[in-house]
Amino acid sequence: MRTPLFRGLMRLLIVPVAATVAVLTAGAPGAHAATDLSKVAEALREDPVYVDPAASDLLSSADAEALADKIEDADKPVFVAVLPAGESDEVFRNLRTETGITGLYAIRSGDEFGAAADPVVMSKDAVNNLVTAVRGTDDPKAQLNDFVDSALRNVGGTAPASWSDGGSGSGVDASGLIAAGAVVVAGGAGAYALVRRTRRRHEAEQRAALEKLRVVVDEDITAFGEELDRLDFHPAEPGADDAMRADYESALDAYEQAKRFMDSARRPEEVKAVTQALADGRFSLARLAARRQDRPLPERRPPCFFDPRHGTAVADETWTPPGGAAREVPVCAADRTRLSEGRDPVIREVDTEYGRRPYWDAGPAYGPWAGGYFGGGILPGLLIGTMLGSMMAGPAYAADYGAGYGYGDGGYEGGDVSGSDFDAGDFGGGFGGGDFGGGGFDGGGF
Question: Which DSSP symbol is given to 358?
Answer without folding.
Answer: E
